[in-house]
Amino acid sequence: MTDRDRLRQLIQFRYSPLLDLALSLLVIQNPERFGPPAPWEKRVLDRLPEGLLDRLHAHGQRTDLFALALELEDTTSLPTPDALRRLGDRDPELAADLLAFWEAVSPEIGARVGVLTESLQREAGLLAQTDPVSFITRFSDRVSVAGDGDALILHWGKGMRVPLEDLSRILFVPSAFSPRRLMFYRLDRTQIFFYDPMHRAAGEPEEAPESLLLGFSALADATRFKLLRLIARERLPAQEMARRLGLNESTVSRHLRLLVEAGLVGRAGQEGKFILYELAPERIDQLAAQARAYLGRDRE
Which CATH number fits domain 210-294: 2.10.60.10, 3.30.1540.10, 3.40.50.360, 1.10.10.10? Predict the structure, then answer.
């Protein structure tokens, strides 16, 4: 079996309300990373009981909600509310809070269920007719495939290489809430790709590369520019950046996640329990070159 055959066999598609629920919570809880609230976020926030987000944040410190969602879907075929009620047998408080959050989120998923399920058939049909490498890379320039298809390359920070031999499945999940064309999440031997089913293919000529849009979005904030200026001079942990700028560590961490996602910042080792971050100057140069190329000014 060739690597490309193996890649094709690994790809699966799933309509996953529970995984999408976990993603919606991630987006709502990280405005610094994902930008101003989308209309669906405002509607969901209006439906939430007071204090629920704080309780869910506390749950998230103890439990990987994406892993929990995948476990529930892998082990039961129950509808989402019933699966969450079953969770109550082992964690009543978490189950009750997730059920309350589901009540706020489910109208948004229900309004898009037709689009989400139709996209599964469409993408499965495309995969059957397309080389698997081309199929994956058409979603976004933030994912590529090494060599003949022996590993995925996820363009996050300095880049992550995911050998196919480390995976048992590559799960494509159409999302009602993805703020990116493609978002990735790794859980043991499962690589999850959330995709926006309404977005045009990344290869269409008028479409700006997602890495270009994400890079400029990351730069479009005064606080993030200050963070970049700090680590352009020296490698620093988030805690020291927060101290120098007079910010909460949690705020700095959320900004850093976007800068890492955009490839503008990378991890530079560790001192004791603190992770050091450094600027990726080559990414600044790459962004400028990408912008010139997209605008047709690269030959000047």
Answer: 1.10.10.10
Domain ranges for the chain: 3-195, 210-294
265-271 vs 274-279, strand pairing mode: antiparallel
Task: Give the DSSP H/E element, type plus range, for residue 2.
Answer: none
What does the block give as tokens for 252? 């700095």
Helix (H, G, I), strand (E, B) or coil at 275: strand
Q: pLDDT confidence of 202, banded at 50, 70, 90?
A: very low
> Is the confidence at residue 207, as pLDDT, over 90?
no
The closest of 289, 284, 288, 266 to 276, measured between CA atoms, is 266
- Residue by residue, DSSP assigns 3-60 as HHHHHHHHEEE---HHHHHHHHHHHHH-HHHH-SPPHHHHHHHHHSPTTHHHHHHHHH
